[in-house]
Amino acid sequence: MTRTESFVLGLRSVMPLLLGVAPFGVIYGVVALQSGIPPLVAMAMSSIVFAGSAQFLLAQLVGAGAPLLLTAGAVGLVNLRHALYSASVAPMLAHLPRRWKILLAYLLTDEAYAAAIPHLIAVKPNSSQSALAHWILFGSGFGLWAGWQLATLAGVLIGTQLPSNLGLDFALPLTFIAIVVPMIASRALLAAAVTAGAVAVALAAMPYKVGLFIAALAGLVVGAALTRKAKK
Questions:
Q1: For the whole model, what pTM was predicted?
Q2: The domain containing residue 20 runs over which residues?
Q3: Measuring CA to CA, which residue among 95, 112, 136 is closest to residue 2?
């Protein structure tokens, strides 16, 4: 497999997920403007930060007038899951020069990871394909980045012209469901997903989305406990 073939494989793998990402990006653009964020700043967030859920949360917190420290902490906590993705792919990318690692770290998102990881796992270590595996992740990451920029631009251009009852807010949970469900391959993962979902629903009324952080921690604790028990 050549570099181009690896890149195209990653690009094609992420394309189905763009169906959920596109409306989510449009929503972010609209919400950012409604929260008082200038159009250029909204676009810059998509180009520089490139973290959909964090951008969405940031826009909501800005609109709600949340304190700066709490806003920064909340966005940081939301993005902590990317460290887990990085740890997962680090052994496969250890041979790369720093410039590649920086680029792939920037492009590593939920959807890009979900699209690329099945192909990365299938690559045999020390094989000829393993030397080009990073091109798969680059392809999925670039495809997601390009789609996100276009979706954000559409949302910014449309602005507040969209009707408030359009119901596009389904895009975020639908996208994450599409990512998570195919990856639930054990009882521990199922228990973690169910626990996190139940806690998130139960604590949905907590201010500043704090319930989401507690739900994520609860899911991690349950999943880790069951995994440790299964290994004994």
A1: 0.71
A2: 3-163
A3: 136
